[in-house]
Write a structure and sequence with these properties.
Helix content: 10-25%
CATH class of the largest domain: Alpha Beta
Distance between the termini: 10 Å
Bound molecules: uracil
Shape: elongated
CATH superfamily of the largest domain: Pseudouridine synthase I, catalytic domain, N-terminal subdomain
Largest sheet: 9 strands, mixed
Radius of gyration: 22 Å
CATH topology of the largest domain: Alpha-Beta Plaits
Number of helices: 6
Order of helices and strands: EHHEEEEEEEEHEHEEEEHEEEH
Number of domains: 3
Strand content: 25-35%
Number of strands: 17
CATH architecture of the largest domain: 2-Layer Sandwich
């Protein structure tokens, strides 16, 4: 990212800054309302260096947002929501108070589930994480009631029809069992509501504890419940690659 200069078409820059659509930005440019480094630019193909050029629209400077990519360990008994909840339940907003950018969760975890949540103000990346088309795998460690036998595991691997359609995990394996409980790892690339719980209940195994430990190449690692950190450059590159995106964001 550092040391790489990417020139961006002026109308694209204005839309990436969240000002307006590319087409409306073209109109603003043609109307002479856009200045680059103090001079009116009416040329639609004009390119700017987002790191150096000063762009103004109707006298107001337009700056690229600072993109944040946050990994949060959502503890159990927090809602994946911003703001206050109506029924007094705690929300993840309490945990990310110190982040000045308006980041949003890319996907959700149930109130009583825990683990990895990604939050960002990069809408394109968030959409790709959530859309099943990009097949980003989410890995869950799940304690369930009962001993999950070989035959059940084999049936799980083939997928099932739930009330809202067919689903099939990318993988499922038994890690251990003790007393009358089993620990399984299950991977899904889709995010339908309560998908893991509904899938496992279908086989008669009610979930005791559900923890998401990875989203694509991003791992929860040794983060503790309630803690967050920014993704590092290497993680972001790997995530973008997994989502078929350019290695670096173009502003
Ligand atoms: N599946 C569920 O059932 N719950 C979650 O929170 C995530 C996936």
């Amino acid at each position: 990212m550092e040391g790489r200069t990417l020139l961006v078409r002026l109308n694209r820059y204005l839309s990436l800054c969240g000002l307006t659509s590319r087409r409306k930005a073209e109109e603003l440019i043609l109307q002479g309302k856009v200045k680059v480094n103090g001079l009116v630019v009416k040329e639609l193909g004009w390119r700017v260096d987002p790191k150096k050029d000063v762009v103004e629209v109707e006298g107001k400077e337009v700056k690229q947002p600072t993109y944040r990519y946050i990994i949060l360990y959502k503890p159990c008994c927090y809602l994946t929501a911003l703001g206050k909840s109506k029924d007094g339940k705690r929300t993840i907003e309490e945990l990310i108070k110190d982040i000045p950018e308006r980041v949003y969760p890319a996907g959700r975890l149930d109130y009583n589930a825990e683990g990895l949540l990604l939050l960002t103000n990069d809408g394109e990346l968030a959409n790709r994480i959530m859309h099943p088309r990009h097949k980003l795998k989410k890995t869950y460690l799940v304690w369930v009631y009962g001993i999950v036998g070989k035959e059940t595991l084999n049936r799980m691997k083939k997928g099932v029809r739930l009330e809202d359609g067919f689903t099939k995990p990318d993988s499922v394996r038994l890690l251990k069992h003790q007393e009358n409980k089993s620990l399984i790892e299950v991977v899904f690339h889709e995010g339908r509501k309560h998908i893991v719980k509904r899938f496992l209940s279908h086989f008669g195994h009610r979930v005791i504890k559900l923890k998401r430990v990875a989203i694509g190449p991003i791992k929860l690692g040794d983060l503790k419940p309630g803690q967050w950190r920014d993704l590092n450059e290497h993680e972001l590159k790997r995530l973008r690659k997994a989502l078929d995106m350019e290695p670096v964001k173009e502003v």
